Structures are given as structure tokens and as C-alpha cells.
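Journal club prep — side note

Before the paper discussion, L.F. wants everyone to see what a predicted structure for a comparable chain looks like in C-alpha cell form. Sequence:
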Amino acid sequence: MFSVVPGYSPGFKRPPETLRLKRKRPRRGSSSSHGAPAGSEEASGLSPEGSPRPFPGSGRGRPRNPFLNLGNTPRPPQAGKRVPAAGGKFLYGLDEDRSAQKENYSEAAAAAVDTFISDTPSLAPSNTGVPSFPSFEFPADWSIKTRLLFTSSRSFAWADHIKAQEESQGCVQHCRSTFINLPQSIQEPKLSTNLRCAFQQSLVYWLHPFLPWLHLFPRIGADKKMAGKNNPWSYDEGLQQILMSEWSLSFTSLYNLLRAKLCPYFYVCTYQFTVLFRAAGLGGSDVITALISPTTRGLREAMKSEGIEFYMPFQEIRKGKSNASSSHLESGFANDSEGTGKDAENEEEQQLGCDNDEDDDDDDEGFLWLEEMGVQDKIKKPNNISIQLNKERHEVQLDHKPESVVLVKGTNTFTLLNFLMNCKSLVASAGPQAGLPPTLLSPVAFRGATMQMLKARSISIKAQVNSHYKDAFSLEIVGPIMPHSLHSLCMLLQSAQNGSFSAVCYSHEPTAVFNVGISNDKNIKESPGKDLCNCGIHPNTLSQLALSPMLGKSSIRTLEVSDYTYTWKV
């Protein structure tokens, strides 16, 4: 039988005594009810008379439920006590860890430790999926990173306080496309001039237009950051025409460099979408390619009206899966009727998240069996207008999604160039970005471009690992980090950090879809050849970018380097 507490009413209709819900702020240093023994009255939640003891409020927020604990619910562990967990491991109370941090460090240091622990993949729990197998190279990531956080057991002090001569030498090496091959391991990185010059060289990028008081990347969702800034061109049509004229010259210059294979790739960042132009020989393609994401039905219809042939890679993948599933169903259910086979095919397509709107003829064939039964007059067949509206509805559902990415190949990229320069929706007509041309990002110089540097800083902190503290070092890179910069920095850090470091990558999400595969050819091109040797990036980086993308619509989130081998998570 159940034990009944004296004076306790399960219905709570008439409590045995008046509950005192006074908000009391707990005194520092006084023992709370969590630290009471398990068998005491204070731990059981009962007063000496046997009635439920009211719990005082914390002084902030709502008061606690006085009937929450009647002795039948487990109590939290005491602070500082080890509690057995799954797998035979022990967990420590958080109160002791927090108090230890506050005793040994100031509030700023404690905040830095918390930030480092949360950002370091080896110390913080990760939900980014299964890591890859160790490899001497990581796949090309065509997304633009906004921030990189490198961590290592060795100091990054060599990256601080670059001398004027080293900064100048790094800029000259970039402009002349001169690359220095560093040794596998550098014992004294702070004394290596070549390392510091190469590090400065890897931070260079080119931008147009350049307005120092505005952050021109990212442009998608940047209205709040640009609100209230001085933009005299928004109300001056003459100034807008001058800005667009200069922008068109810079855009044309970049495309000519790309076609001459003197520029490997570049980005066009508008307030609605981003375009990635890649030279022939990169991304597993032998021709110039352009990826646009995200797109809308209106933009796609405008491209069709201009005669631009394009593909939707995810729709092609969907059709391939649909064809594969239909062939599988035909082979597995050869004895089934035609109608049953089509029902199973439609069910398979729904599991793949696909739309069954690619074949208009199937709608007509679906009613043939009704004519054979003689009931076609009793069934209302949808007219062409309804079918067209249904098709348009499916197309609109893709708008502003990664699946709406568009691929343009070959000579159609030149038509796309003219289309973008004359497209009215390329520039915002209202809001903080009104009249501002799109941002052009390139790894090499072009007409009207401004040389910019990624911001880098190193931090030395104490990181808590289990029950002790250890020295940890981090290097933060901020800015529009393009694919070649990520690879160049990783090559440098392999030499400087003895082939052991980790990185947390923060991507501009609208550009993650640029990692979609654009070629069905299984023979992946391993080398871009000699045509791109003068494009201005390191040969090893060039070899990496020449491979077909394999990340789909994901991007690299974390990189782990151990003994000069990579593992990554997306």
C-alpha cells in the first residue's frame, strides 16, 4: 500500500496549513537544501509536522512550486561531488568549476575561457555529424567563410606584429604571384621571415566597390547593419549611374581575366543572391561555369527570356533518383499492374522529397485506364490551366531555397554577364542598400579593385580540460575568406604548428550550396593543366580547387589536423 503523509490532501482542496510563499534571496556561503543529507527532513521537503515545506523563491522570476518535491523525486548532486555517469565515467558539479574559474581568473578571462571551450571542437560537444576518414587533403569548399578560429597547443605569437618590411614583401609576393615553399616543420616560427611574409600574402583579397564606412560583405540580410549609414547615392540618380558605370567596367574586367585564365574565380554578391564564376578547369568542369543562389521563379523566367540556358543541379539529381527508383520498381514488381506500379513510384518519389511534375504526358496517360473502364465522363479531368498553375506552384516553392541554385555553362556565361549588367533587380530600389552596386570579390587584382586584408589576431588563454587547466592558443581570422585563403592558411599552419591544429569555420550560409556537384563524369580531373598556372594562386591550392565538389549543399564546419592529416565535419 502507498504510504500517506499525515495532514496531506492529494486533491489539494483544503491544505492543512497556510502556505508561506515568501521570496527569500539565498545567502552566499549558506548551505542550501541540495547539500542536505538524503534522509533528513530538509532533503525530503517535509516540515517537522509532516506537512509539505514551502520552497522560497529565488528572488528572480516565478516562485517555485511548493508541491514539487515530496520525497519521491531524486535530488540534484551536491556541488563538487563526483557522480557516476554512463560508461563508468564521472561528471563534476558545475558550481565547483565555476567558482574555481572565478577564483583564478577575472571576469574577462572567464568569459574568454567559456568562448574558447564553446568554440573548440575538441572540448565542446558537437552535433555536426560523423567525421571523415583521415586524409592528406580536405575537399574544396566553395562557400565564403566569415570567420575562422584556429586552435593549437603551440603559440600563434608569430602571427602578431608583422613588420613593415614583411608586410610589404607579402603584398609584393601576392601581386607577382610568387610562392615560397615552406619546410614541413618550422622549429622557431617567430624567427621565420618567410612564414610571416607568406602569412601576410594569404590575407590579401580584392574588393569593389570600396566604401570604408560600410561593410560590403555579406550583402544578403545586411540591411540592419547598413541602416543609418550615410548613403548619398540613394537619392542622387546621377551618382547611381556613375557607380553602376564603374561597376560594369570592373565586372567586365573580371570576366575577361577569367576567360583568359588569369583569374581562377570571383563572386558577385547582391542583396538578393550570390553568383560564383569559375574558370575552365576548376570544379571538375572543362568550361567556364557560373552558379547562382538563391533564385526565384521571376529571375529564372527572365533568364529564359534572354536566351540563357541553365540547369538546376538538384532537380537533375531528383530526376536521376526518380528514374532509378522507377527502374528498381519495374524490376522488383514486374508482375504488378501498371496502375499499382505508378502508385509505388509516386510513393518512392514522396520519400525522396521530390515533386512529380517533370512529365506532363503522364497526366494524360493516367486517365487512359478510366476510358477502358468506361467511366471517363464521370471523372472531371483537370484542364491545361490547372496543370500549369500546379506546375508554377511547385516552381515557386523552390524560391529562396538552396535547391533553387542555377548552373550556367560555357558561352552562356557571357550572356549571363550582359544580363546581370542590365538587370534592374540587381540593385535595391529602396532601403539601406538602395542604389549600391553589388560587391565583387576576387583573389586577384582587376580594374577598379581595392586591395584589402583579412583581420587576424592571436589569443593566449587557459582552457579547462576535465579538472585542470592547460595552455591553449588560438588564431582568429575575420573577413570574406574565399576558398583559396582557407587552403593557404591551412598549409601555413601545418608548417608553423607541427602539423597539429584544429579550426572552426563559420560560413555564409547562402554560399554553402556552391559545393554542389556539377558534373556526372566519374573520371574526376586531378590536375587543371598548365593553362591556370598564371592565375595567381598556389599550385597545391589549384589542384584542390580543380576537383569536383563533394560536399553537396553543406560546408565544412570543423577541421582537425593531426600528424599532417585532415578530418572534417560538415
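L.F.'s comment for the group: Residues 237-259 form the longest helix (23 residues). Keep this in mind when we get to the figures.
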